Amino acid sequence: EDEDEDEDESGGPMSLQHYARLDTMVTVVDSSTIFSVLQSIEALTDSTMGGASEQDDRTVCNLMIDQIEFANVILLNKSDLLGGKDSAKMKKVLGVVRKLNPKAKVYQTTKSEVELKSILDTKLFDMEEASTSAGWIQELLKPEHTPETEEYGVSSFIFRSTRPFHPTRLKKIVNGFGELDKKIAEQSGKGNSEQRSPFSGVIRSKGQIWLANAKDFPMDFHSAGKQLAIEPTGSPFLQALGPENWDEDEKKGVEELKAKGRWDETFGDRGSEIVCIGIDLDKKLLVQKLNDACLTDEELKAGPEAWKKYEDAFFGGGVVNYFEFAGFEEEDGDDGDDDDHQGHHH
Fold it and tell me: What pLDDT is attached to residue 59?
């Protein structure tokens, strides 16, 4: 009987969740080094932290941001090394962390001293809520035209466009992310804005973009600190997928887009949406740079056949695989009906 009690319904061994609940997700941040970590490009596999698998290609910066975004409680430790809770440096750290995760409870600490009731038996953890706690998600959930608030120089903006990006022009501008040292040098009079990218103050970005030479597939756009990645999502735009392949959720999604005026008669749901979070951002300049990287009226009129010939600036020739959605591959014995197309949701 004892053995039966240690097995779940499938006959496998009982896991920890059968004996305990996940109560609180706590992240401890070293306030004195947070900006150094945000600029780090050190891979987890090369760090002294240990525990990373060879397949984990994240940087130390990626890991820190992931942990901040997922936490219920964040301890900003070593505040004393930055001059105390009321110092300008500490307020900047607080502003960054609150922007990365506006839902978390944040405590400034020395030697990680905090009341136990703040981290034990809080019943704060909820998986559904945790999956949407990241600041970039919260920004997208806000109604459009919500006034931006700036705290201690930390702010964000959302770039949206229904025009595709010209791949070569986009490649030229998306550099210099998270170069906070250059930003700080400029503020102290030791540098100038001409020596740095307008993206130097961006510490986190996330979204999807439409590249002209990847007509039918959105690309995932995300950065953490200095590391930027643009990667295929694997799922086509809904308009490319075709109404005959939409499931009920996708049909509702199309209706919502149409209600918000974000469905184009020609290109459907194709477009770009990027959230950028950073320090002392020149948002007007950043939006201008991104708009300039989109197709002009003349390029737009030239149409997809002309776009297809654009240089592949990001994927070494592989972008051709994302120009046109060719439909679903039918398995042997498929009767032709495609009622289930899992993996094609956004």
Answer: 86
Place of tokens 């009731």: 117
Low-confidence ranges of the chain (pLDDT < 50): 1, 3, 332-346
Contact between residue 96 and residue 203 where contact means Cβ atoms under 8 Å apart: yes
Q: How many CA atoms lie within 13 A of 276 on its CB side?
A: 25
Tokens linked to 237: 């735009």
The Cα–Cα gap between 196 and 75 comes to 32
DSSP 269-315: T--EEEEEEEES--HHHHHHHHHHTBPPHHHHHH-HHHHTTS--SSS
The helix/strand count (H/E) of the chain reads as 13, 8
In three-state form (DSSP H/G/I as H, E/B as E, the rest C), the secondary structure along 14-52 is CCHHHCCCCCCCEEEEECCCHHHHHCCCCEHHHCCCCCC
3-state SS, one letter per residue, for 208-241: EECECCCCCCCEEEEEECCEEEEEECCCCCHHHH
Q: At CA 282, angle to CA 205 and CA 183, rounded to 5?
A: 80
Q: Which of 186, 223, 228 is nearest to 206 (CA)?
A: 223
Structure tokens at 343: 């993996």
d(CA 25, CA 337): 44
Task: Report the C-alpha gap between 99 and 179 in whole angstroms.
Answer: 18
Residue 29 main-chain phi, psi, to 5 deg? -115, 130
Q: How far apart are CA 105 and CA 124, in angstroms?
A: 10
